[in-house]
Design goal:
About 25% of the residues lie in helices and about 30% in strands. It is an alpha/beta fold and about 300 residues long. The chain has two domains: about 190 residues, FAD/NAD(P)-binding domain (3-Layer(bba) Sandwich), CATH 3.50.50.60; about 110 residues, 3-Layer(bba) Sandwich (FAD/NAD(P)-binding domain), CATH 3.50.50.60. Strand 13 and strand 14 form a beta hairpin. The longest helix is centred in the C-terminal third of the chain and has 29 residues. The protein is elongated, with a radius of gyration of 22 Å.
Length: about 300
């Protein structure tokens, strides 16, 4: 079965739903394809979104789905497995369930997934007392005993940042050698009062469903109540690659080259949210989606007006 839409949005997170809301209100026939894999699913609450601070992510998405439905936007729970361009009516998108849809414009808002360090206990506690973003979770664990798990020398930056929320911070070098830290790193760590502990981390200590410590390979245990880690971001850019969008390499993965509205190097192909960049928090992702949705409506409007004028 093939259906034709003016816009298909792949990704039902903050960016995708925001784009769909704008397009629905602009009376555009729009479909959202939602695989149901939001990046912030491990978190009980989201913070820093004005008027939505503390709302559970699942509740936020449920409200968004209700809002787009008011304007006739369709949503299908499925996964986009392939896409092709160059068709007279734009793009075709193949879904895992066997359906094929077509769209004049395509928004990729598939986000990214966090690849966690392979330390026992980290994945199980992630989003609770194993955290990655102090702006997202720092207030909730403020003034507790923090640990920071180093995965690269850049983890020094994370250790310094979290001192805004606690003055009891220990940087566990893990698989980073102390010699890899610069003189500036060491001076700043000392000035911030961050303790530096060499040695590989073997696992976490948990009692009564709470993090209580970090255990090193040598058997020593350091009491900690929250552990900050730096996951490796893996962008979900398969559709962008399949459609020939130009990607740029960054320290945080490959992301599409886009203009200020979110348009990629392929006409009619847009990227929003964490599919367009690593540092898009929920509020930023929603903004990106809104901007893309408004720009797409304008593109469709003037394309059709110009065609009518030529006719």
């Amino acid at each position: 079965m093939t259906d034709t839409y003016e816009v298909v949005v792949v990704g039902g997170g903050a960016a995708g739903l925001s784009a769909a809301l704008v397009l629905g209100r602009a009376r555009r026939r729009t479909l959202v394809v939602d695989a149901g894999e939001p990046r912030n699913a491990p978190s009980a609450h989201m913070q820093g979104f004005l008027s939505r601070d503390g709302m559970p992510p699942a509740e936020f998405l449920a409200v968004g789905r209700e809002e787009i439905a008011r304007y006739g936007v369709e949503l299908v729970r499925d996964r986009a497995v392939d896409a092709a361009g160059g068709h007279p009516d734009g793009f075709t998108v193949s879904l895992a369930g066997g359906r094929t849809v077509r769209a004049r414009h395509l928004v990729v808002a598939t986000g990214l997934k966090d690849e966690l360090p392979p330390v026992p206990g980290v994945a199980e506690r992630f989003g609770r007392d194993v955290l990655h973003c102090p702006y997202c979770h720092g207030w909730e664990v403020r003034d507790r005993a923090f640990g920071v798990l180093a995965t690269t020398p850049m983890s020094v930056h994370q250790a310094l940042m979290v001192t805004q929320w606690s003055k009891d911070v220990t940087l566990f070098l893990h698989q980073v050698e102390e010699a890899e830290l610069s003189d500036d790193d060491l001076r700043r760590l000392a000035a911030a009062g961050v303790r530096v502990v060499p040695g590989e981390v073997a696992g976490l200590c948990v009692e009564h469903d709470r993090l209580t410590g970090v255990r090193l390979r040598d058997g020593s245990v350091h009491d900690r109540e929250a552990l900050f880690v730096a996951p490796r971001p893996v962008p979900r850019n398969d559709l962008l690659t399949a459609l020939g969008a130009e990607l740029k390499q960054t320290p945080f993965g490959s992301y599409p080259v886009i203009d200020e509205r979110g348009l990629t190097t392929v006409p009619g192909l847009w990227a929003a949210g964490n599919a367009s960049g690593f540092a898009e928090q929920v509020v930023n992702a929603a903004s990106r989606g809104y901007r893309a949705g408004a720009a797409i409506n304008g593109e469709l409007l003037f394309t059709d007006l110009d065609a009518a004028a030529r006719g």
